[in-house]
Amino acid sequence: MRRGLSSVRKPGSKLTLYFGRDPGCADFPSRAVDAEILGVRCRVAAVADSFCCGLPVIRSGIFPRALLAECDMLRIAELFPEYAEKLPEYLQRRL
Q1: Per-residue tens of pLDDT for the chain, all 95 residues
Q2: Which residues pair with 40 in a beta bridge?
Q3: How far apart are alpha carbons 87 and 55 in whole angstroms?
Q4: Domain range spanning residue 35?
Q5: Are strands 40-44 and 33-37 parallel, antiparallel or unpaired?
Q6: Which CA distances in Å does 45 have to 1, 14, 94?
Q7: How many domains does one find in the chain?
Q8: What gap in Å lies between CA 23 and CA 85, rounded to an integer?
Q9: Which of 53, 79, 80, 87 could form a disulfide with 91 if both were Cys (CB 3.0 to 4.6 A apart)?
Q10: How far is residue 36's CA from residue 38's CA, in Å, rounded to a whole number?
């Protein structure tokens, strides 16, 4: 994972929480948006920030984290086509 980024998930839950200490993530809270997650209103990372977090994980090549990040990136690009061109070329071909 990206330096300083940790995740937790309660067993049986569909929700994963990510906590970051990386200086590159310092502005994420100021760009957070309101959303409903599993029926609960909360603030979540902006799409651009979520997308940018996945790129270093993919480049790391650490399996299975890189594979999971690729799946996340493809889901974002399917929902937000403007991000498709920012994907690595081999992932663009999978869309």
Answers
A1: 445 567 788 899 888 777 767 777 788 889 999 999 888 899 988 988 888 777 777 777 777 778 888 888 899 999 999 999 988 899 999 98
A2: 37
A3: 8
A4: 5-92
A5: antiparallel
A6: 17, 17, 25
A7: 1
A8: 26
A9: 87
A10: 7
Give the Cα separation of 91 and 70 in Å (integer). Answer: 8
What token pair was written down for 25? 């993530």
Residue 19 sits at φ, ψ, to 5 deg, of: -120, 130
Listing DSSP states for the chain in one string gives --TTEEEE--TT-S--EEEE--GGGTTHHHH-EEEEETTEEEEE--HHHHHHHHHHHHHHT-TTHHHHHHHHHHHHHHH-GGGGGGS-HHHHTT-
